[in-house]
Specification:
Blueprint (H helix, E strand, L loop, with lengths): L1 E5 L10 E4 L2 E4 L23 E5 L3 E8 L8 E10 L2 E10 L5 E3 L2 E7 L5 E12 L5 E11 L13 E5 L2 E8 L4 E7 L5 E5 L6 E7 L10 H4 L2 E3 L4 E12 L1
Antiparallel strand pairs: 1-9, 2-3, 4-5, 5-6, 6-7, 7-18, 8-17, 9-16, 10-11, 10-12, 10-13, 12-15, 13-14, 14-18, 15-16
């Protein structure tokens, strides 16, 4: 399994552009292999972090970030701690600029998959997307449901975001008799799921906001605004189990 941090936003921003409080922000695409893809995943996943502390079971990292085309400066912290049966990741951000800044945080874990692998979670909504994976229409239910209905994860090829998460998310490998339970902190109410065609992995990403949140209404998008000097932290625990 691999996992990188999502800071200060998750997934794509449509057209690599947004307007925040009258300030127009145009960002450069940053996908290492696809220059046509809109900017995605923020800056933390491609930036060098500094190790500030480490032990046999934990690691603490820091990042001072002031990208050329991002109007704000911020600092981020990232920690991993291993314990019996699983590990915990914690991601934080502090605003260093003198203006308010739009913020989103999250985690981007990868999981191996084959034709037997199962993924179960409860969400009230699934965003239907365009060819650039930008949300266009929300398929909303009155109650949270499992959008795979117990079928293997490979039966649906998706790259979208889900809303209204309830409870833990679970990945199971029945052919191996093992599973992983994903436990995000309360602020991570959205989940991006990426199941690509013809690959042996998929991603379950607990995030604080929907894709393209900076171009949406704040109340529904999950976008958070932090002022000068403000800080915010989120976390995720992944636990292993046998069955």
């Amino acid at each position: 399994m691999a996992c990188f941090p999502l800071v200060p936003f998750s997934n794509r921003i449509a057209g690599s552009f947004f307007d925040f409080d009258g300030r127009e922000v145009a960002l450069s695409p940053n996908h290492p292999a696809d220059t046509a893809c809109p900017v995605l995943h923020g800056f933390g996943w491609l930036s060098p972090w500094e190790v500030t502390d480490k032990s046999e079971s934990s690691l603490e990292l820091s990042l001072d970030c002031n990208p050329a085309d991002w109007p704000w400066q911020f600092a981020s912290s990232l920690s991993y701690a291993v314990s019996p049966g699983g590990f915990t990741a914690e991601l934080g951000i502090t605003i260093l600029s003198e203006d308010e800044m739009p913020v989103g945080l999250g985690f981007h874990p990868y999981f191996p998959r084959n034709k037997h692998t199962l993924f179960s979670s409860l969400h009230t909504g699934e965003w239907q997307t365009d060819e650039n994976c930008i949300p266009m229409h929300l398929d909303q239910h009155s109650q949270a449901i499992d959008w795979w209905f117990g079928r293997p994860v490979a039966t649906r090829k998706v790259d979208t975001v889900y809303t209204g998460r309830e409870g833990a998310m679970v990945v199971q490998w029945p052919d191996r008799g093992i599973g992983a339970r994903i436990l995000p902190s309360d602020e991570l109410t959205f989940t991006t799921v990426y199941v690509p065609e013809g690959e042996d992995y998929f991603c379950v990403e607990p995030v604080s906001h929907m894709t393209d949140a900076f171009n949406r209404e704040r109340d529904d998008s999950g976008m958070r605004v932090l002022g000068p000097g403000e800080s915010w932290k989120v976390s995720m625990r992944i636990e292993a189990f046998d069955f």
